[in-house]
Amino acid sequence: MIIDRHSLAKELPEFKDKIHELKMNDRHFARLFDDYHDLDHEVIRIEEGVENTSDEYLESLKKQRLHLKDQLYSILKSAS
């Protein structure tokens, strides 16, 4: 089974340069970005079977990841 990674640069390629700029210059954005990356990594580990957990927990992680993505997208849109 191929696991689909959800890196922010892959999810929002039109903002690749802006993502890099904000990671370097905006501490709030950088913290949210790191949180998003950590959640995505945890979801991938669970989906690959490296970690075992309940379906409910995995679903809650995916919802958190989506919420962070929405926040990051909003920041990116307002910074453009």
List keywords for this structure.
about 80 residues; mainly alpha; elongated
Describe, in plain words, how this protein is organized in 3D.
This protein has 80 residues and is an all-alpha fold. The chain is 75% helix and 0% strand. It is elongated and about 40 Å long.
Task: Please specify the SSE layout and strand pairing.
Elements: H1 8-11, H2 16-25, H3 27-47, H4 55-79
Helix pairs in contact: 2-3, 3-4
The H-and-E topology, N to C, reads as HHHH
* Strand segment tally: 0
| Shape category | elongated
* Number of discrete helical segments: 4
The gyration radius over C-alpha positions equals 13 Å
Oligomeric state of shown chains: single chain
Q: What's the average pLDDT?
A: 92
In what range is the share of β-strand residues? under 5%
Q: How many angstroms does the end-to-end distance come to? A: 37 Å
Category from helices, strands and their pairing: mainly alpha
Low-confidence stretches: none
- The percent range for helix content is over 70%
Quick one: biggest sheet? none
Short description:
75% of the residues lie in helices and 0% in strands. It is built from four helices and no strands.
